[in-house]
Amino acid sequence: PHKFEAIIKEFRQYYKIDSFLRGLSRQMGNSLRTKKSNVQPVSLYKTINDKGVLAIDIGPNFNSIYLDFLVEQLKLAAQKGMQYLLVLDSMNLSENKKLKEMITSSSNNVRTIVSCNDLLYACGGNQDLFSSVVAMAKQYFIFSHSSAISAGQWSAVLGEYERIDETVANTKDRTEQIYSAAQMYFPEPRQKSRTVTTSKRRDYIVPPEKIVSMQNNEFYMRADNFRGIKHGYITN
User: Fold this and answer.
1) How far apart are CA 141 and CA 191, in angstroms?
2) What's the first-to-final CA gap in the chain, in angstroms?
3) What pTM was estimated for this model as a whole?
């Protein structure tokens, strides 16, 4: 019985490994080198060490096993002291736990660029993840957004200021008492009184409607190496 249980246990482990490899092979698609292929295999570690560029398309659908595999390889490279730039272009950041942990943790060996049409959407609408990604950013560019909700998130990131509104009311007061013909035709001028009312409120430095209405080549920028917000246009 004990030998039979050991065989069953070994078979289950084999099944898990076989299932993992099959799933990985299916998700890697064209990235997987076949025996008959003339294309030479590419080493991630060698590419980083040679300061090369490696572009990997994980496909339009979410490939969790493949992405887990890549993230673990990248983490191992960083742990070995390899320095590299990681560019995530139009990826959903919310559906992979390992990827979320990687981009929201600091590393002296890894620099990360996140490029997407809408960061809040790429974070699955998760405001905590959005805030974590922004907090890790040393520099970010904000272009026009079609979503008012996302634009509001960026307005909050860019900050607020104390707005002071003044309301001025001018009134004229005159009491006419006719004592003589001169006073009848030349009455005393009215006395002016001026009332100033002030109100304070917090307002966005860049309102959401400004972000929504920006031109395609227009942007706002903020970086750690200078104070304030930069506003500009990309020209050809």
Assistant:
1) 56
2) 76
3) 0.71
pLDDT tens per residue across span 115-139: 999 999 999 999 999 999 999 999 9
Residue 88 and residue 113 in contact, taking contact as beta carbons nearer than 8 Å? yes
pLDDT at 110: 93
Residue reference for tokens 């996302």? 150
Q: How confident is the model at residue 50 (pLDDT cuts 50, 70, 90)?
A: very high
Q: Which long-range contacts does 120-126 make (Cβ < 8 Å, 24+ apart)?
A: 120/147, 120/149, 120/150, 120/153, 121/147, 121/150, 122/90, 122/91, 122/92, 122/93, 122/94, 123/93, 123/94, 124/92, 124/93, 124/94, 124/95, 125/94, 126/94
Strand arrangement of the beta sheet that strand 218-223 belongs to? 139-142, 218-223, 230-233
Residue 3, token pair as written in the block: 């030998």
> Can you give the pLDDT at residue 106?
84
Distance between CA 209 and CA 212 in Å, rounded?
5
